[in-house]
Design goal:
Number of strands: 4
Strand order of the largest sheet: 2-3-1-4
CATH class of the largest domain: Alpha Beta
CATH architecture of the largest domain: 2-Layer Sandwich
Largest sheet: 4 strands, antiparallel
CATH topology of the largest domain: Alpha-Beta Plaits
Number of helices: 4
Order of helices and strands: HHEHEEHE
Number of domains: 2
CATH superfamily of the largest domain: ACT-like. Chain A, domain 2
Shape: globular
Distance between the termini: 40 Å
Length: 128
Amino acid sequence: MTVISVSLPDESIESLEKLRESLGLSGRSEAVRASIKMAGSEMKDMERMDGDVEGVLIVVHSTHDDQWIGMLQHKYERTIRTQLHSHLQNRKCLEVMILSSDSDTLERMMKEIYGIGKADYVKFVRGR
């Protein structure tokens, strides 16, 4: 097994510890491996999508003053049927978007959201 060194912010360490505890894992390495498996499963779900896709995209971000999400919403305005923005505690924001598009466009949008790296939580719930 290969050993790597990773620097994580305190918030990520807290999340990792919560995951470790909730899954009953003995150490952080196991929690990291479990996280990678979960992320891999999510990626496979996205890759399996084909044809027209509809669903709900949920994004939580803590960059209230950064306009990246607005720019992304304008870029994908033909995909987003409706959207809701709500302010949460600690200057975080919740974005809920009803989407309808072809699977390739949705995959590009999701990759862009992950690639920007400013979302604290991203989840797509497929309707069909």
